[in-house]
């Protein structure tokens, strides 16, 4: 029995959810998102609730029950409020700035790293050492944050690099004389 899948997804005001051709589509103030549905689960819209139920009693259907419910919840949340990931930059001379449609990072390389900002994603740099990535699609926001972090992951000795704001870096002790 799925612990996640049995709960219905509430649809907030200003969001519409439609099911057609094995696809769930959510429209809201932040845009439109869609996700495919497998034949192992049944998705229904009743009033302002979306319910997900398995069609068979197989292991795959039970596994996809909770997954599909989570995907539908991410669609509804994404088009109504959106998702945000915060990154922090630590290190002497390390900084970030948004220039036009590019994120420019100075990460200790001989050249600045330019990352083009994709459509549907907004980036802000309130401080030169903080990046805020926001958008409607949870997967894309997380993927972009991961790609930016991969340019200079935090190292364990001085903690220099790009890290998630919620991440804690396990620090190591340096060499002894």
From TrEMBL:
Superkingdom of the source species: Bacteria
Signal sequence, renumbered to the chain: none
A single MF term (Gene Ontology): structural constituent of ribosome
GO term, biological process aspect, one: cytoplasmic translation
SUPFAM superfamilies: Ribosomal protein L6
All copies of domain Large ribosomal subunit protein uL6 alpha-beta, residue ranges: 11-82, 91-164
Keywords for this protein: Ribonucleoprotein, Ribosomal protein, RNA-binding, rRNA-binding
GO annotations of cellular component type: cytosolic large ribosomal subunit
Entry function: This protein binds to the 23S rRNA, and is important in its secondary structure. It is located near the subunit interface in the base of the L7/L12 stalk, and near the tRNA binding site of the peptidyltransferase center.
Family: Belongs to the universal ribosomal protein uL6 family.
Description of how the protein assembles with itself and partners: Part of the 50S ribosomal subunit.
PANTHER family, per database record: 60S/50S RIBOSOMAL PROTEIN L6/L9, LARGE RIBOSOMAL SUBUNIT PROTEIN UL6M
HAMAP family for the chain: Ribosomal_uL6_B
Name of the protein this chain belongs to: Large ribosomal subunit protein uL6
The species this protein was found in: Thalassobaculum fulvum
């Amino acid at each position: 029995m799925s612990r996640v899948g049995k709960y219905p997804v509430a649809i907030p005001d200003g969001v519409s959810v439609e099911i057609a051709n094995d696809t769930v589509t959510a429209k809201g103030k932040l845009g439109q998102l869609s996700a495919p549905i497998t034949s192992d689960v049944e998705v229904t819209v009743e009033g302002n609730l979306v319910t997900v139920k398995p069609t068979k009693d197989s292991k795959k259907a039970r596994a996809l029950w909770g997954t599909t419910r989570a995907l539908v919840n991410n669609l509804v949340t994404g088009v109504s409020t959106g998702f945000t990931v915060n990154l922090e930059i630590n290190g002497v001379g390390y900084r970030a700035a948004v220039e036009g449609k590019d994120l420019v990072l100075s990460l200790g390389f001989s050249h600045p790293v330019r990352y083009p900002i994709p459509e549907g994603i907004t980036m802000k740099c309130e401080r030169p050492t903080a990046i805020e990535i926001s958008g409607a699609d949870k997967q894309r926001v997380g993927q972009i944050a991961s790609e930016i972090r991969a340019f200079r992951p935090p190292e364990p000795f001085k903690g220099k690099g790009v890290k998630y704001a919620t991440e804690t870096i396990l620090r190591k002790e340096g060499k002894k004389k």
